[in-house]
## 1
Amino acid sequence: MTARPDPRGRVPLTLGVPDGVDEEGIQRLVHGFYDAVRQDDVIGPVFGRAIADEAWPVHLAKMCDFWSSVLLKTRRYEGRPLAPHLRLPDLSDAHFARWLGLFAETARRTFDAEAAEIVIAYAERIANSFRLSRAMHAGEDTMHLRPIAAPPASR
């Protein structure tokens, strides 16, 4: 799938199933990403408090289902992904930015450049949707929220 970039040249306007993304790639993405998350000083402790060591295999399988549903439209994921994020009291924009950074690094290692940017665009939309929802649920003024984006690929 070739995506048409937005006027800023960054995020595709229409996201579909990216060429070169398959179940094996999604498994590498999810497992590689969460390996990095668990070692990260910024978001590792948040995940460590939310997911017990013995619960990680189930979480990883659920995240593979989630990303398969998002990227390949398989509908394997059954759940409400926002709810657990609303229960975490200490999430900030710094956490979302770090999540996006690690996710983008992993996506760029896992997929070719075009597919990685589409996968990252999905993650950016999800992160910004969660940020907005968290702020609204907390009764915060959401007018100041500006979208965050993954850092560009290093050259």
Note: Residues 92 and 131 are 8 Å apart (CA to CA).
## 2
Amino acid sequence: MQVEHLEELKELEESYWWHVAKRDLAVNLLQKYFPAPGKLVEGGIGSARNLITFQEMGYEVSGFDVMPESIETAKSRGLSAQLHDLALPWPVENESLRAVVLLDVIEHIEDPVAVLQNVSNALAPGGGAIVTVPAYQWMFSDWDKALGHYRRYTMKMLRAQAEEAGLKVTSLTHWNAFTLPAAMAVRSCEKIFPKGRSAEFPRVSKFTNQMLLNCAAAERWMMNRIPVPCGLSVVGVLSK
């Protein structure tokens, strides 16, 4: 993540639909599969806003990130965080964690299996991880390059990487189906009329922001009952 993007996250994390909806998704899955109490580590903490919510849920939280600015931000918020490369062995005791959260993280890492193996080592029996990744390699674009992505994912790919790392796949589904048509239209236009894109999130009106939050809430309701067949992200619940 670029420092400029971190600054943007600080501005948008409280209300922008993407960040709020992704955090609500993680909360819903943690409560369903790996409820507090227990130790929770988030990898790739960004501005550390998620850690605040996880702490409020009753977890003993800490975070890892490769950006000194993210670590400084977390510590300024009274949170535990360490500068650490997720692909290297984690500085935690084996089988000590109740939960791990990796929201749009492993697509940034050249060797995602190494990260997931570290997750497997760190999780206690009965614990697990919530992992989200961008879907559909055919949608890979300048947006992904600007964000530092190595790849986009299929459910088959995430399953294979998780199983190679020694994790059980408890649930796999898509997320964010409600913006998929618009994203496909944008990607198609970019292929015809290519131009560079920054990593900034597009601004929306308050009305549109609330409408998208409502759509995300409806989709979470559906996810609790049946898998979502398509969407801009793949969501994995992985267990020890």
Note: The first strand starts at residue 38 and ends at 43.
